[in-house]
Amino acid sequence: MHPPILETRSEHWPDEAACAARAQTMAERQALRDAFIELQGPLGAGKTTFARHLLRALGASGRIKSPSYAVVEPYELTGGAVWHFDFYRFADEREWEDAGFRDIFAGPGLKLVEWPQNAGETLPVPDLCMELVPLEDDQRAVQLSAYTERGLELLR
Questions:
Q1: Distance from C-alpha of 28 to C-alpha of 46, rounded to nearest angstrom
Q2: pTM of the model
Q3: Residues 6+ apart with CB under 8 A from 68
Q4: Would you say 79 and 59 are in contact if contact means Cβ atoms under 8 Å apart?
């Protein structure tokens, strides 16, 4: 159960360029370096696309793979470590604990998590939750909810 939301912002992304622009804006925030961001939405909502744009904005080069099968893809970038998780295939929240992810979440670095609900109550409180809803064409409705002061900085 998350604590109360400090602030919520709704955005409309008319196309993928708007997704990339939001990722670029967020990448410029110092608070991002140690943030935990939940990416929520149905299959095809654009969670992985947003994560790829964010990783590119942070300086990742080469192929950026979806962590769907590996569960986590780590990146060591100039600004620090980034872990991109996908818990889609988790069937039991104990899988999170058994995989040793508690240590990663307790340490520094950016954590991006797709399908966080599949890890149950084991995850810490996110700084920011992004819920992406696909609309017609390539449009997206996006709700950003900040749960911490760091999350508030990422909203701006």
A1: 21
A2: 0.94
A3: 86, 88, 89
A4: yes
